[in-house]
Amino acid sequence: MDTLTRNTEVSTSIRQRSGMDKSILKVLAYFDIFRYPLTPGEIRSFLDQTCGEIDFTVALQDLIKARKIFRLNEFYSLQNDLSLYERRIKGNERAGSLLKIAERIASTIYSFPYVRAVGVSGSVSKNFADEHADIDYFIITKSNRLWIARTLLHIFKKNPFLKNRNRHYCMNYFVDEAHLVIEEKNIYTATELFTLIPMAGNGSMKKFFDANGWSFVYFPNLSLPEVKKEKERSPWHKKFLESFFNTRFGNWLENYFFRLTTKRWKKKEDEKRLNTKGERMGLKMGKHVSKPNPIFFHDRFIDVYETRLNEVIND
Predict the structure, then answer these.
(1) How far, CA to CA in Å, does 11 sit from each of 4, 17, 60, 66, 125?
(2) 289 DSSP β-pair partners
(3) According to a count of CB atoms within 10 Å of the terminal CB, is the N or C end of the chain lower?
(4) What is the spatial distance between Cα 263 and Cα 257, in angstroms, rounded to a whole number?
(5) Domain with CATH 1.10.10 in the chain
């Protein structure tokens, strides 16, 4: 190999590692908002570019030498704070316990009329839970029956028997089979998509993942969650109630629940009500979707992330 070729390859490798540095910092900046350190494997899986193991390892070592990132035992973080290691270990243990609870609850949710698939999202789906963690569910319903399904589930949630376990029943994101593509296409929704844990369903969850292939632009090294063998048989009471609501009355009730919930939540937003975490309450609603209003968390999170990323990269 002549000197010119060797120098060219070295220069190319340096440029690649420079880009790799930025990609690594982007991953750690995102999870740093949640004070969550990552393993090398986790960092690599969330990179926005494909990479070789050598380039990745060298870039990681260079960032440590430059004190841009810090090693906390087997994890890496933007903060040189060993308590983050201990926090993650405890959070992973709690998440494991909550996932067992979530699996039972998901089965119950799936037994309700018009529910076609159930997944766990939020922090628990990322294998972390603090002392106050909720279990968040992503629910797919039959087309044009989202509001009947949602209303019945929330009536069930108000059961006095569940009063002290409400945080295990946070059913806050619904779409129906006619609205499987996520509207907000960004790093936040892509992360939620790739970390969603399928729990129960009839095939709709796989269709949901197939409909959101845009997410690979953000994470080319990841695979969308595998949908294991889903439940195909529905309990008799689910079939009976669906046959009862598959009528003109059911159409009227669907529209009524949609209008009623829209009016109620508009009032909450106008009054600037807060939830138990001190966050603004709000829903973005339509005939085929009911989800947290992105203005009150999603959009704010993206702003915080971009600010944090600029601080890290320009430091």
Answers:
(1) 10, 10, 18, 20, 41
(2) 175, 286
(3) N
(4) 10
(5) 3-79
Alpha-helix residue ranges (DSSP H) falling in the chain: 3-32, 40-45, 53-65, 83-110, 122-125, 146-157, 187-195, 204-211, 236-245, 248-270, 298-314
Q: Is the whole model's pTM more than 0.85, yes or no? A: yes
pLDDT(246) > 90: yes
* Window from 13-27, 77-91, 288-302 with minimum mean pLDDT: 13-27
DSSP 280: B
User: Nearest-CA neighbor of 96 among 71, 145, 129?
Assistant: 129
Chain-centroid distance of CA 156 in Å reads 24
Sign of CA dihedral 230, 135, 87, 79: positive
Q: State the CATH architecture for 3-79.
A: Orthogonal Bundle (1.10)
Instruction: Give me the amino acid identity at 17.
Output: R
